[in-house]
Amino acid sequence: MTGAAKRYGGSLYVLAAEEHLEDQILQELVCAVACIGAEPQYLRLLSMPSIPRAQRRALLEEAFGGQMHPYTVNFLNLLCDEGLLRQLGDCARAYRDCYNQAHGILEVCAAAAVPLDGDARRRLTEKLAAVTGKRIHLTVRVEPELLGGIRLDMGGTRLDGTLRRRLDTIREGLERLTL
């Protein structure tokens, strides 16, 4: 994530928090990222300096005005004007990071060899909340190559309790013994 994305996303969060609009703006940013990401031609068009600023702003207003808070639309216009619209995803990530910190939320990505059922997800979420003291936002990915166990990525830390990692550790140990 670039410094500009952190600055812009963080500044938008500060404004949204002052106006008690954090949740709404977050959802609108998620929507804007999805919409613009789904149409690469649209992003390319909005990023062309040969198209006058007023026309690019009109395109954004047509797409998002009336459906999103003016702060969100103005933010998109600002990124467009500054040639930073390609960094919208990173800006949204920076916004979410500020949101999570302010609300005591820890995003955790769990990778498992098989899908976790509702009860396993609930137990894992409760255990992580008890250990961290934070509200847990859990996403689960299925990665069959892990063979078994679970790998957690949270707050820049990786906890790997997968069978694949254990087998790799054993293999590495055996290779050291044979050298």
Estimated radius of gyration: 21 Å
Can you count the beta strands?
Answer: 4
State the domain count.
Answer: 2
The whole-number mean of residue pLDDT values reads 92
Low-confidence stretches: none
What is the name of the CATH topology of the largest domain? Peroxidase, domain 1
Give me the secondary-structure category: alpha+beta
User: Major sheet, described briefly?
Assistant: 4 strands, mixed
Q: What's the CATH H-level homologous superfamily of the largest domain?
A: N-terminal domain of the delta subunit of the F1F0-ATP synthase
Q: What is the string of SSEs from the N terminus onward?
A: HHHHHHEHEEEH
Counted by DSSP, the helix tally is 8
* CATH architecture label of the largest domain: Orthogonal Bundle
**Helical content band:** 55-70%
Question: How much of the sequence is in beta strands?
Answer: 5-15%
Neighbour order of strands in the largest sheet: 2-1-3-4
Query: What's the level 1 CATH class of the largest domain?
Result: Mainly Alpha
Please give the oligomerization state of what you see: single chain
